[in-house]
Write a structure and sequence with these properties.
The complex is a heterodimer.
Chain A (H helix, E strand, L loop, with lengths): L1 E5 L8 E6 L2 E8 L2 E6 L13 E3 L2 E3 L6 E3 L13 E7 L2 E5 L11
Antiparallel strand pairs in A: 1-9, 2-3, 3-4, 4-8, 5-6, 6-7, 8-9
Chain B lengths: L5 E5 L3 H13 L4 E6 L11 H7 L11 H6 L2 E5 L3 E5 L4 E4 L3 E4 L2 E4 L3 E3 L12 E3 L3 H13 L2 E5 L3 H11 L4 E5 L12 H13 L2 E4 L4 E5 L6 E4 L4 E3 L2 E4 L3 E3 L2 H5 L8 E3 L10 E3 L4 E3 L2 E2 L3 H15 L12 E3 L7 E5 L5 E7 L4 E8 L2 E8 L5 H9 L7 H10 L10 E3 L4 E2 H9 L6 H8 L9 H11 L9 E3 L2 E4 H11 L4 H7 L9 H12 L13 H5 L2 E2 L5 E3 L10 H13 L4 E4 L5 E6 L4 H8 L11 E6 L13 H12 L8 E6 L13 E6 L2 E6 L2 E2 L3 E2 L2 E6 L2 H18 L6 H8 L1 H9 L1 H16 L44
Parallel strand pairs in B: 1-2, 1-7, 2-3, 7-19, 9-16, 10-11, 10-16, 11-12, 18-20, 35-36, 36-37
Antiparallel strand pairs in B: 4-5, 5-6, 8-17, 13-14, 14-15, 20-21, 22-23, 23-26, 24-25, 25-26, 27-28, 29-30, 31-32, 32-34, 33-34, 37-38, 38-41, 39-40
Classes of the chains: A mainly beta, B alpha/beta.
Chain lengths: ~110, ~800
């Protein structure tokens, strides 16, 4: 697991980008826990971290495509990668290469 | 009856209005005169408690706008008093002098609040709860009173208590008998209601007979028959009504508790009818709206010599207190009954049966199937297994209801009427159906059911715009009501209190706008509910960079501003500088982390080019420079932009001011456009030059700039409060109708109230670009591997050694 940020670094309900092991990842802090997914929308490359998060899903700010933060499922065949996140003592860690099993309590 | 016979209706309440409407529906020719004792058109008394809760203007309660009376050829005499008359001769005496002739007369004189004859009832601080003036007085007192008492624990008393509690005042409901709403509830459901009231800070004191209101110079307390007492510096009395029969007695009609009527609704004199709370039928006086409307329909028939008979009403009631769902119909008990009850969730569902037929239902906390159960009780349906019937009702959807099932109890509209409005009359949206059938326009509590049925009848088509968002079946109006009545201040609170269990990426910004609008911008801002554009106050581009448009009112700038813009563009290597269609300068391709620095160096306020807000007021140079100019369009445009800038709107608003009808500022295709004409200013609304082009409608032509500003500002606020989210003015104006908009924005009272709320909202706006020095979060503009703006230490990005990776 790789240290990504302190909990306070991401405003509640929002997402921020970070590069870990050469991979651009969007990290979300939500009511239901932390999620890490690929940073870029497979449709037209929109920045998912700038999207609105609701009900375990993020909506891309460019064309309103919605992706499930738990499974990475999007509209049609579109998928984004998901990664395991763990919060320890106020610090957030991401495991690149490990798909998310279940969200981590905030 | 012969053409132009005259029917005179005395009384401008719901009953008088209902008779006038029912008559006109049946007969286009008969002459109708409605005499109102008050100086106001008939209004909807049932919704009084709304005014008490949120303090909105009494004018919003009008049953029909002024034009309705002209359009339907109903003569209205306002503020006129009938003193007597000669029934055989067919004449009435008005205000001591004038005579008015009639062929048939309808007395709809209504009722007075019943006030107990106890000492102190006339003291200052004691109010009935009956008309808008009472509401205003109670509301005023509730803000300063320390403890309020409501005498009377019936439907209206509880609604009054809720209104007082909503002002933050302690309130106790005093009730004579051993349970609340004893006419509608049985002991178990009445007891279950109390904790829900306690949650709303309403205390209840049962079996208490008030003997006196004490205090000397003003109300200070109550003394009870058992010798106990309590403090109360605001006392509201809501123990029932006293039919108003003074005029009936003067005219020599038979009266008892009320004016005695037969099944035909005719009184003891063959030329005189009576309808509403003043009428007594078979020993009953009805104080609820549904029976009154049934009586009005019967009276309209018999007035026109058609046969019809009123045989009494089965009463139903809905408690309009936010947070408590309660529907009752018919009797509280039968010879057998089925009850499904859960004390923990405070739900209670009961169906009462007598002689094998449904006679009553009580639904508390879980009102599923209310329409089906009401229909069963009204039709006195045979019930073999009440428990089965109760369970079946809760699973019933709109499709399962019979056509006779009454959906809107206020206006007596059945499911069949709603379906016919779609299938026969061609209505396609809930709004159209509601306007045609009047369903949902009384207390409004049936709106969700109406929407469901219209959705079913239209095959789910075309009704999306009625909802705030496709994922939550709630209309903008329903949510706004909840926000007002419950005092909600943030999107999270709305989601919690009016939740459908979920929100989506489209709901949140719509709710964010609604919360800010209803609270006049004094809401609690939650940025996660906003689009990225509103989180960082810039417009996101296809490559994830942003565009920056500084404020340039009316498109007017200075050399020093231009110099700063040029310097900034060079310093930050901004790839593109472009003049926009709204006469602004756009800097495109700015990275998010550079935004605060760019704003600081520009030292100009935000131009709001990224928001659903008042964007630009485009101007031509006007009379100051142009040889054709008729007015100072440039100066006026700058003035308007100052007045409106910073305000969010349901969708973007583009404005323009042209100095003459040559219209170089293209004001006739703007959301709000103003054109200088000979002798004044033309104000236009609802124009568009997008995917489709729409010429703006002329709202009015006025003489002065001040009038043009007032009129257009009033429209802007009306749009802010009533448009669906993302609904541009070019859809909004035709949806509401130009005539209706004209009526609203030119109405002195409504207009003044709109402008006052506009003023409040505007006063709470700020320049969002000041967040460059005061971000809402240290990482408002930065990613996790960038240095944050507050000069704090950069977040260490430690790429952990492989052995630290787990799993």
């Amino acid at each position: 697991m790789t240290f990504a940020c302190r909990e306070d670094d991401v405003p509640p309900g929002e997402g921020r980008n970070i590069t870990i092991e050469g991979r651009r990842i969007a990290l979300f802090r939500t009511d239901t826990g932390w999620y890490a997914v690929d940073a870029v929308c497979p449709h037209k490359g929109g920045p998912l971290a700038d999207g609105i998060v609701c009900d375990h899903a993020v909506t891309c700010p460019l064309h309103d495509r919605s992706f499930d933060l738990r499974t990475g499922e999007g509209p049609g065949e579109d998928r984004i990668g998901t990664y395991a996140v763990e919060v320890r003592a106020g610090e957030v860690y991401v495991a690149v290469g490990v798909p998310a099993a279940s969200p981590v309590a905030a | 009856m012969s053409e132009r016979d005259r029917i005179v209706i005395v009384g401008g309440g719901i009953a008088g209005q209902a008779v006038a409407e029912a008559l006109r529906e049946r007969d286009p020719d008969v002459a109708i005169t409605l005499i109102c004792g008050e100086d106001a058109l008939p209004y909807d008394r049932i919704r009084l408690s709304e005014i008490l809760v949120d303090g909105s203007d009494a004018a919003t309660l009008a049953l029909r706008p002024e034009e309705w009376f002209a359009d339907h050829d109903v003569e209205v005499l306002l503020g006129r008093w009938v003193e007597g008359g000669d029934l055989d001769a067919g004449t009435l005496t008005l205000d001591g002098a004038e005579e008015l002739t009639f062929d048939k007369l309808v007395l709809a004189t209504g009722s007075q609040p019943l006030l107990p004859p106890i000492p102190g009832i006339g003291l200052p601080g004691v109010h009935p709860f009956r008309d808008p003036a009472d509401c205003e007085a109670i509301r005023q007192s509730a803000t300063t009173a320390t403890h309020a008492a409501v005498i009377g624990g019936g439907l209206l008393g509880l609604e009054a208590a809720r209104g007082i509690a909503a002002q933050g005042c302690d309130v106790t409901v005093i009730h004579l008998v051993d349970r609340l709403m004893e006419r509608q509830l049985d002991p178990v459901s009445a007891a279950m209601l109390e904790p829900s009231l306690a949650d709303l800070n309403i205390k209840v004191r049962l079996e208490s007979a008030t003997q006196a209101i004490t205090g000397g110079d003003r109300a200070r307390g109550l003394a009870f028959k058992d010798g106990s007492s309590m403090e109360a510096d605001l006392v509201v009395v809501s123990i029932g009504i006293r039919p108003e029969k003074t005029l009936a007695n003067t005219l020599g009609l038979a009266t008892n508790r009320g004016i005695v009527v037969a099944d035909s609704m005719r009184t003891s004199h063959e030329r005189v009818w009576s309808v509403g709370e003043c009428a007594e039928h078979a020993g009953m006086v009805y104080g609820l709206v549904a029976p009154i409307l049934e009586q009005a329909r019967v009276a309209a028939d018999t007035l026109l010599d058609r046969s019809a008979a009123y045989t009494g009403s089965i009463l139903s009631a809905k408690l309009k207190v936010a947070g408590i769902d309660l529907v009752t119909v018919g009797e509280a008990d039968g010879d057998t009954s089925a009850v499904v009850s859960d004390a923990a969730s405070r739900t209670y569902r009961k169906l009462s049966v007598r002689d094998g037929r449904a006679v009553g239902a009580i639904l508390l906390g879980d009102v599923r199937g209310a329409e089906a159960l009401m229909a069963a009780v009204r039709a006195a349906e045979e019930v073999t297994d009440p428990l089965d019937a109760l369970a079946a009702a809760s699973a019933a959807g709109p499709a399962d209801l019979p056509d006779e099932a009454q959906i809107c109890n206020c206006n007596g509209v059945c499911k069949g009427d709603l379906v016919a409005a779609v299938e026969v009359d061609g209505c396609t949206t809930p709004r159209e159906v509601m306007s045609r059938t009047r369903a949902g326009t009384g207390c409004g509590s049936c709106k969700p059911a109406v929407i469901d049925i219209v959705a079913m009848a239209t095959g789910g088509l075309n009704d999306e715009p009625a909802y705030l968002c496709a994922c939550r079946k709630q209309t903008r109006e329903e949510l706004a009501d909840q926000i007002r009545t419950q005092g909600l201040q943030s999107v999270s609170e709305v989601s919690q209190c009016c939740g459908t269990g979920r929100d989506c990426g489209a709901c949140k910004p719509a709710l964010a706008y609604l919360v800010s609008e209803v609270n006049d911008n004094r809401h609690r801002e939650e940025r996660h509910a906003r689009y990225i554009n509103d989180r960082v106050h810039a417009n996101i581009q296809k490559d994830g960079t942003f565009s920056v448009v500084p404020k340039m009112r009316g498109g007017v700038t200075t050399p020093s501003e231009l110099r700063r813009i040029a310097d900034v563009a060079e310093k930050y290597e901004i790839p593109l500088v472009k003049v926009t269609g709204g006469q602004r300068i756009d800097l495109l391709g700015v990275s998010k982390e550079d935004l605060p620095k760019v704003w600081r160096d520009l030292d100009m306020p935000s131009g709001f080019a990224y928001a659903k807000a008042v964007r630009t007021v485009k101007t031509c140079v006007g009379e100051q420079h142009c040889r054709f100019g008729l007015g100072d369009s440039m100066g006026f445009g700058v003035e308007i932009e100052k007045a409106w800038e910073g305000l969010h709107t349901p969708a973007k608003v583009k404005a323009g001011v042209s100095g003459c009808p040559r219209n170089c500022a293209e004001a006739t295709i703007k959301d709000i456009g103003i054109v200088a004409v000979e002798g004044g200013w033309q104000v236009r609304i609802g124009g568009a030059a997008g995917a489709s082009v729409r010429e703006a409608d002329i709202l009015d032509t006025v003489e002065t700039k001040a009038e043009a500003m007032r009129l257009s500002t009033t429209f802007l606020q009306y749009y802010r409060e009533n448009a669906d989210y993302k609904e541009r003015t070019y859809d909004f104006v035709p949806r509401i109708g130009l005539d209706e908009i004209k009526r609203i924005v030119t109405d002195a009272q409504i207009g003044a109230a709109l402008r006052e709320r506009f003023r409040l909202a505007k006063a709470a706006t700020t320049d969002p670009w000041l967040e460059r020095d005061d971000p809402y979060h240290p990482r408002q503009f930065t990613d996790l591997d960038q240095q944050s703006e507050d000069d704090g230490p950069p977040t260490p990005v430690v790429v952990g050694p492989p052995e630290e990776a787990r799993r």
